[in-house]
Design brief:
mainly alpha
């Protein structure tokens, strides 16, 4: 699920109330849609964190591990947004985030939960 959040294409639209902000970003040479896409990904991670907290099949230690990974991903997304505001290309940062998820999963060593069970629970 975490890799899907980072990898899936997200199409965002500029709402009428966001038009001034989008124009400001454009004037500064920044990509408002990319900024908004990163925000959506962060919101999806927040929703995933709630699901992990509410899941009764996961051990407390496993929940803590998953929550730590989610928090790390949210931190990475916030850093990517900050970098975007500074005019930096964030594509490489997002690729690093994908790699971090895969690496984190390999190191999880969840208690009695198999990868299949984990994916089914989320």
């Amino acid at each position: 699920m975490m890799t899907n959040i980072v990898e899936m294409p997200i199409e965002v639209e500029i709402a009428p109330e966001e038009m001034n902000q989008a124009l400001l970003f454009n004037h500064l040479g920044l990509d408002f849609k990319e900024y908004k896409t990163i925000s959506v990904r962060s919101e999806l991670f927040s929703m995933l964190e709630q699901k992990v907290d509410q899941d009764s099949t996961l051990l407390k230690s496993d929940k803590a591990k998953l929550t730590a990974i989610i928090a790390d991903m949210q931190d990475r997304l916030e850093a990517a947004q900050a970098a975007l505001l500074e005019g930096e290309d964030v594509a490489e940062r997002l690729q690093d985030s994908k790699k971090a998820i895969y690496d984190s999963y390999e190191q999880l060593k969840l208690g009695k939960v198999s990868q299949r069970d984990l994916l089914a629970a989320l």
